[in-house]
Amino acid sequence: MTITPGIHDLTKDAYFADPTAEPSLSASIIKILITETPIHAWTAHPRLNPNYERTEEDKFDLGNAAHALMLHDPQAFSILQFDNWRTKDAQNAKAEARKAGKIPMLADNWQRVCDMVEAGRAQLLQHRDASEAFANGKGEQTIIWQEGATWFRSKLDWMPDKPTIFYDYKTTGSADPDTWQKIAFQTGADIQAAFYRRGIRALELARNPRMRFVVQETTEPYALSVCEFSPESLELADRRIGHAIKKWEWCMKHHEWPGYPDRTVTLEAPPWHESQLMAREQRDADLAKQLGAKDDIELLAFAMKMQSPI
After folding, report:
1. What is the pTM assigned to this prediction?
2. DSSP β-bridge partners for residue 147
3. What tens digit of pLDDT does each residue of 88-113 get?
4. Which of helix, strand or coil describes residue 285?
């Protein structure tokens, strides 16, 4: 099945299979092109790598289930009445659920997901400027667009009835904004936000769309925060995306997917490494002065004496 530019209601499997006329760029492939190499992007692409297989890891089931429930998709789960996954019957039931495109959930974990989403919705209703999140619109909508000969695809968490502010739901260990800020840049959430905005503008859904992340903790009290990248952060992400697209277009044109440099790379000490060394040398000098050591050899003797067992 091939698909035209626009908004589409695709299943998860159809989206990940990449239904565009030519292999398309997604946010995940963009991130790989930015942080790794073209050959890594080729390997992770379902249309380029003939041996590609998408895997589902158990550790993500709780977050994926909360994500689906928050976005009003009750058909995404398979609630299984087992105490744990240790038995053969439980493992078989889990495998069948995955084959059917469902998220396998133990009954106890399902109750935790329900409690989490209920707490999240209650907090959003009280939020000063995000009370409309996941309220009016439709979840899990795919946008497809073209720029020249290059195809792009994104799966938006939520398509609002009035497309101005777009919300994305994340689960995490800590929703503290300072903590999640580090996680966001490490995981490329800034790239995701800028890439989604690019597609929204390309389809003329909104002139200046805003991307906000609803970030919720997976343990009680299931606290959440709402975060948004600064214009400066998005501008930097746009530049990185533009560079990644140029890589992609070159590779697609030439049918070459290079990896790391084919030459020996000279490694330079980063600034923090030198600062750390200077700080250690200063501490050693202070210790030598404190202990009355006359030179480094005497200081070393002092240090070895202090470290040796009594």
Report:
1. 0.84
2. 150
3. 988 999 889 888 888 888 888 889 99
4. helix
